[in-house]
Amino acid sequence: MDTPTENVSIGEAVRLFGIGRTKLYELIQRGDIEAIKLGRRTLIRANSARAFIDSLPRIGGRP
User: Fold this and answer.
1) Distance between CA 35 and CA 44 in Å, rounded?
2) Closest of 60, 58, 36, 61 to residue 46, by C-alpha
3) Residue 31 has what DSSP assignment?
4) What's residue 18's pLDDT?
5) How far apart are CA 35 and CA 24, in angstroms?
6) Cα–Cα–Cα angle for 34, 38, 43, nearest 5°?
7) Cβ pair 25, 33 in contact under 8 A
8) pLDDT tens column, 7-61
């Protein structure tokens, strides 16, 4: 059996990314970040969040 994928709540993702809830929901709506529903909760797939962050342009550092 595979190990479960880590997921974070909307509130946790907002704190981790340093963005607002509205912006996070925009990223989900555009398909930039994958989210799942568990009952009434929306969870962000951690691997999707990492991939999104890794895809952002870097400023002044190495590519």
Assistant:
1) 4
2) 36
3) T
4) 92
5) 10
6) 35
7) no
8) 999 999 999 899 999 999 999 999 999 999 999 999 999 899 889 989 988 888 6
pTM: 0.78
38: left (phi over 0), alpha (psi -120 to 50) or beta: beta
Q: Which amino acid is residue 13, in one-letter code?
A: A
Write out the H or E segment, with its range, that includes residue 44. strand 41-45
Q: Look at residues 39, 33, 38, 1 and name the one whose alpha carbon lies nearest to residue 14.
A: 33
Judged on CB neighbours under 10 Å (0-12, 13-18, 19+), 17 is middle
CA angle 50, 51, 52 (to 5 degrees): 90
Residues 6+ apart with CB under 8 A from 49: 8, 13, 16, 17, 33
